[in-house]
Design a protein that fits this description.
Number of strands: 7
Largest sheet: 4 strands, antiparallel
Number of domains: 1
CATH superfamily: Homing endonucleases
Mean pLDDT: 87
Strand order of the largest sheet: 1-2-4-3
CATH class: Alpha Beta
Number of helices: 8
Shape: globular
Oligomer: single chain
């Protein structure tokens, strides 16, 4: 099967739009670079329920959606798209996407905050926990760089985990970082075309105080003002 003639082979050469930054972040989280002889293939595999994201990726890149394959892995339905294009894989490598990347990725230099926020959201859609602001990675350095870049007060935590691989349970560790409500909401407002099931707006401390205050009776509200 040949790569679609509409494939935008220079799409990732310059990360100068929020769309490109979002997909770079998504690929940081969920893509695999596979070396086969002298070629490097890009593979993106998601659970079947998130197949829409693979369709959108194909649309942005001009990739033939007939390249998609479906399979069942560890009793989970999954969708996979893979292809080899030297221009695209070389550009992604230059932006920090590595083969066997999970423990060695570093935060890329994108120069503009809107691009950084879009990248962060793409990564969250791939490796963030739905309904939280928690971001996971096998690279502690990557999360520490995000913490520093966005001046986050939260610590990088370590989490032991077990995953099933080819019928065997494998023990390992990963790291996670809370982005917090303010950064998360800014990230959501900055880029609207992200994974629908992970879009939400957590409230910050000021919001929580306001909601709590509105729920009080007038007498209790007056009492709170007197204590402040």
């Amino acid at each position: 099967m040949t790569v679609h003639p509409d494939l935008k082979i220079d799409y990732f050469h310059n990360i100068n739009t929020k769309d490109k930054a979002y997909w770079l972040g998504f690929l940081y989280a969920d893509a695999t670079m596979v070396e086969i002889g002298t070629k490097t293939r890009l593979e993106l595999e998601l659970k079947r329920k998130d197949e829409e994201s693979i369709d959108r990726f194909c649309d942005f890149l001009g990739l033939d959606k007939n390249r998609k394959r479906h399979r069942i892995h560890e009793k989970t339905e999954r969708t996979l798209v893979s292809f080899a294009c030297k221009n695209i894989t070389n550009d992604l490598l230059s932006h920090g996407l590595k083969c066997r990347k999970s423990k060695i990725i570093k935060y890329p230099s994108l120069k503009r905050r809107d691009l950084e926020l879009a990248f962060l959201l793409g990564y969250f859609d791939g490796d963030g926990k739905q309904g939280t602001t928690r971001l996971f990675s096998g690279s502690k350095l990557f999360l520490k760089q995000i913490k520093k870049r966005f001046n986050l007060k939260f610590k990088v935590h370590i989490s032991k985990r077990e995953c099933r691989l080819n019928g065997r349970w494998i023990k390992g560790v990963e790291y996670y970082l809370h982005l917090g409500a303010d950064l998360f909401n800014e990230m959501m407002e900055n880029y609207k075309d992200s994974m629908p099931r992970k879009r939400w707006h957590p409230c910050n401390l000021e919001d929580k105080h306001q909601r709590s205050n509105e729920a009080l009776t007038p007498e209790k509200r007056q009492r709170r003002r007197e204590l402040q």
